Amino acid sequence: MSLRTLSLLVSTARAALVGNAVPFRAALHVQTAFLRTRAVSLQYSHGFADRHAAGSAPNLDGMNQMRADSLLVSCDATTRRCSARPHVRGMASKTRARFSKPTMQQVECPSEEAATGSAADMPTQYSPSSVEQRLYQWWESSGYFKPAGDESKQCFVISMPPPNVTGKLHMGHAMFVALEDIMARFHRMRGHPTLWLPGTDHAGIATQMLVERALKAEGQSRVELGRDAFLKRVWEWKEEYGGAITGQIRRLGASCDWSREKFTLQPELVTAVNEAFVRLHEKGLVYRGEYMVNWSPALGTAVSDLEVNYVEEEGTLYYFKYMLADADDASGEGAYIPVATTRPETILGDTAVCVHPEDERFKHLVGKEVVVPMTGRKVRVIADDYVQMDFGTGALKITPAHDINDYAIGKRHDLPLINILNKDATINANGGKYADLDRYDARAQLWSDMDAAGLVLKTEKHTQRVPRSDRSGEVIEPLISTQWFIKMDGMAQKGLDAVRTGQTKILPERFEKVYFNWLENIQDWCVSRQLWWGHRIPVWYVEGVDAADLAPGKGAKDGAKARQTFFVARNEAEAREKAEAVYGEGVQLRQDEDVLDTWFSSGLWPFATVGWPADNEEAKAELNKFYPSAVMETGYDILFFWVARMVMCSLQLTDKLPFKEVYLHAMVRDKYGQKMSKSKGNVIDPLEVINGVSLKDLLAKLESGNLDPKELNKAIEMNKADYKSGIPACGSDALRFGLLSFCGQGRDVNLDINRVVAYRNFCNKLWNATRFAMLYFESSGPSASTESQAAQCSFRPSAIPVAMSLVGDGGPHVDLPMLADAWILSRLSVAICELHTKLSGYDIANASQIVYDFWYKELCDVYLEAIKPVMQLDVSSVANSATKHMTQTVLYTCLHYGLRLLHPFMPFVTEELYQRLALLVGEARTTIMLAPYPEPGAVDAWRNAKAEEAMDVVMRVAGSIRTLRSTYLKGSLEKHAPVVYVLCRSPAVAAILSSQKDTVCALARSSKAPPPAALHLVAEGCMPPKGCAAEVLDGSLEVHVLLKGVVDFSKEVARLQKEATQITGRLEKLKAKMSKPDYAARCPQATQDEEQGKVVAMEAELAALEGAMLQFKDA
Do 933 and 900 contact (CB within 8 A), yes or no? Predict the structure, then answer.
């Protein structure tokens, strides 16, 4: 094939991928080629159009070997790269001749390895990149995320906290996805119809800022463009860029029903928002009025408390004179009240000076007048116990229009409001000669003028909390503004009652105090925003009508309502109908320019997304089925901003609580406990953890940002120290499990990426443990040749015996062939029970530890090692064959149950292994997502305390042997197989060890050390030979490893003597401390108990060392 042809084919393949937002692997197979990929592929061949209907897949199994000169061109949509390689297998000539016309069609190809189900076909390392996206696309396209299941069971519904449509995936998203996906998968596997409803928020401020920034780069502004054209531009931006975060959430394995994905500005949610506003207005809860708001000059809108960050900054405290208006009011001419402020420009809006009523310095001046500097206005001196006499000068300037506390004082004392600021934070006409100056320029000019007038006392440095916009970073101005508000007192009381009566539970419970505190001190909610992007307020004003002129007979119908200048309605048609009922036909209406606070639409999220206001039967059925939700999972930082508002809105509009439980997750911080922040350069991108990233790319990303130079240097050094080789590709499962293992309820997560890397290794251990176990299911066991391994597996699991008694003649006995079988089934039963308890109580961190311990510490580290002797039995014997088959069945059961237990935590690797396991034993290939989650009641019969006690003895002895070997047999002696003597003074324990010698030896070996050469039980009254290293496990059990002739005893005695000397020194020091006369009085009882325990432990350790030295000295 020519290079030109190859180039053309690669270009064609690239073109086929352009514009496809869903990452997938595609391939072109040239001439008579045939390909298999793990997802959707494009197949190029001859003659398929003649032999198959459009869109149908050809029978790939019937295809023969390929021609050696065929070429495979593979393209990856995620990297936009294509590559070509020869396909070396040939195709039969008859098959090749049937292909006459070149066609290209889409076909679905299974995983070639998974299709065989053979352990021999499994790679030796788990590769998340070859599994995760393939499986996710299959799950989603198969409809497994949709709410199906046992209709007699209660639906489990959880709504995804809608991320901003402008957002980019961060660790907070990764945390909530991992937690909510566990909940959804757990309940789905238990047979509950499960709806995890996804969606995005229109993010009014953030989205408008991004588009305005783009317009500015083009030399335009939204005002110049006009509202309609601007909104068209925003929608275009949303369609092009707005869905990025949902694709990123998919990478984390989120099993939410994307067919029901919601966007807060889609038509049905706009209808719901308008309906909610109208109903609240009809109930008298919505009103328009003047109040103090957080004003963002740069954004030109009021913002919520959530969008204001209070930052500790060093500022200036300005001290100046408030001159008395009448010299006779004090000691004479020049008398003044000293006042301090951090914002001198607000002096222009002062309407009083306030002192404490009991302050002897100023109480005689209360009621007198003082002169506002540089304005000549006279204001009163008032008294209020809000003033702190020991702060500043003890006298406060009061600016009710520009400070929330001053506003409250002004209300109490009926002070006038003087607004001195324009919307852009320049001084308005009320500022006199300072009008049109920027607020900071006005500050400097006013202070300079006051200094020239002799009114300045001093300035000093002062640390203060400065309110800054979360979006723009500018200083927020408290400003009196006419806005739309919702009355909160009655709604807040309902929200308080819901939690206090236990109808809604907040977990962790300590956050109930935060919830109560906010609702008990709540202010009316300002819901209007001076933006264009968002839910436009459904209020229409009558054009050309002055409220003062609206008496009956003056433009209004006779007997109609007077002075109604606006109409709240669901849509313009309804508003016009209402207006014409008052003014007659032809009335001109204008809709309110403002939009609603984003939190207003978010407050309706649990019910507006499932059919409310339910104006037809289909919507009613949807609402009744999926509302209320079972649980709301979100971050604790928005408990009152979002969760409380959902509770209040739901109760007010639906008379139902939106959810039964609230689970609050922690904030994800870096490993040092610092908040992840772009300004610090310590943000960890989840996709970089999933895909991996080099240190070079990490540093390049930092350097391309706009970090402060000092912070940049710190961030570079931190990255070099923490990620010397970059971040390896960990996959989604490892990232999820790492986050979950950290997330004790409500506690912040200090994320160490090295822990995530450890869980990547855990995924690999699962993979190889299952792969190794699958070899045990092959007909010839793990030592079989590759050819026999690839053969069809004949193993089929049988039933597990219900009764597994350890009581029998001649000592312990089990109905299963091995003690380890009874033990692992008992541990599996315990894990199932504990997992149900933890998952049902949202104790996710401990649940993750339980399933980790079962797989890693019990199944992999113990059971797989313990059964090696059974797996090596000669199956020509009927008894051996039966024994081996039963152990294979137990192993299969543990894998099957264990994968299902782990699936909600690690969905991808468990799905892949589950399918391979099923195919290996001849079962149908199905998804683990819909497999039943193991239930406690079904496995209670497996619980076996005696088996666990017996196995504990075996593991303790085996562990002791390993410890002694690792202590004394090092380096070249590591592979020495010693003789072991176990001194056992209990007949029952001796019987266990006698029957489990092979198991002890199997567990006593390691990857580098062989099993013991021999294991001898030493009866009561006898002693093992001299020259042994020993460990005393308890009063009746000792382990001795024969070292005579292997180890230099003189060196060992010297080493042990040195260790004993160190312990003796620590022991004497501790005893001296405890013998002091005041020890008991000075130390708490807990400390005394702890230190007494240390004494006992050190004395026991010394005794063991003395015994070991005696053994070596006498040998």
Answer: yes
Report pLDDT for 206.
86
Strands (E), 932-1036: 979-984, 1014-1018, 1028-1034
Query: Which amino acid is it at 76?
Result: D
Distance, in Å, from the CA atom of 812 to the CA atom of 65, rounded to the nearest integer, reads 58
Tens of pLDDT, residue by residue over 643-669, are 999 999 999 999 999 999 999 988 888
**Burial annotation 477-510 (CB, 10 A radius, 16+ → b, else e):** bbbbbebbbbebeebbebbbebbeeeebbbbeee
pLDDT, tens only, 100-126? 333 333 334 344 444 456 777 889 999
**Parallel, antiparallel or unpaired: strands 979-984 and 539-542:** unpaired
Residues whose CB is less than 8 angstroms from the CB of residue 584 and which lie 6 or more positions away in sequence, other chains included: 557
**Which DSSP helix (H) or strand (E) runs through 311?**
strand 308-324
Cβ–Cβ contacts within 10 Å for residue 617, how many? Answer: 8
Residue 705, helix vs strand vs coil: coil
> What angle (nearest 5°) sits at the alpha carbon of residue 911, between those of residues 832 and 738?
70
Do the bridges between strand 589-591 and strand 566-568 make them parallel or antiparallel, or are there none, so unpaired?
A: unpaired
Coil, strand, or helix at residue 462?
strand
Residues contacting 914, CB < 8 A, separation 6+: 896, 899, 900, 903, 928, 931
User: Which of 43, 91, 88, 38 has its CA nearest to residue 64?
Assistant: 91
**Which among 802, 795, 963, 978 has a CA at the least distance from the CA of 888?**
795
Residue whose pair of structure tokens reads 């305005």 in the numeric block: 212
* pLDDT tens per residue, range 755-784: 899 999 999 999 999 999 988 887 544 444
Q: For residue 1008, which amino acid is it?
A: K
Contact by Cβ (8 Å): 661, 631:
yes
Query: What is the SS3 assignment for 395?
Result: strand
Angstrom distances, CA of residue 334 to CA of 319, 323, 363: 16, 7, 19
Q: How many CB atoms lie within 10 A of CB 706?
A: 7
How far apart are the C-alpha atoms of 297 and 280, rounded to whole Å? 30
Sort 878 into a burial class: Cβ within 10 Å, 0-12 / 13-18 / 19+.
exposed
**117 phi and psi angles, rounded to 5 deg:** 70, 20
Q: How far apart are CA 391 and CA 398, in angstroms?
A: 15
Cα torsion 770, 772, 773, 775 to 10°: value is: 130
SS3 content of the chain, % helix, strand, coil (to 5): 45, 20, 35
Distance between CA atoms of residues 694 and 699, nearest Å: 9
Structure tokens at 52: 């198959």
Per-residue pLDDT band for 744 (boundaries 50, 70, 90) equals low
Residues 458-505: pLDDT tens digits?
999 999 999 998 877 889 999 998 999 999 999 999 999 999 999 999
Is beta strand 595-596 parallel, antiparallel or unpaired with respect to 102-108? unpaired
Of 1049, 1051, 1038, 1059, which Cα lies nearest the Cα of 1101?
Answer: 1059
Which residue, chain included where needed, has tokens 């990297």? Answer: 79
Distance CA(1015)–CA(770), nearest Å, equals 30
Q: How far is CA 359 from the centre of its chain?
A: 53
Amino acid, single-letter form, for residue 1100: A
3-class DSSP state for residue 314? strand
For residues 982 and 277, what is the distance between their CA atoms, to the nearest angstrom?
Answer: 80
Give the tens place of pLDDT for each residue, 669-712: 888 878 777 767 788 889 999 999 999 998 988 888 777 788 88
Extract the tokens encoding 500. 């206090």
Strand boundaries in 697-854, DSSP class E: 749-751
Decide if 389 contacts 408 (C-beta within 8 A): no
Tokens of 701: 């990303």
Sign of CA dihedral 430, 435, 438, 440: negative
How many Å apart are CA 143 and CA 258, to the nearest integer?
Answer: 9
Radius of gyration of the chain (CA): 38
User: Crossing angle for the helix pair 267-282 and 644-654, nearest 10 degrees?
Assistant: 70
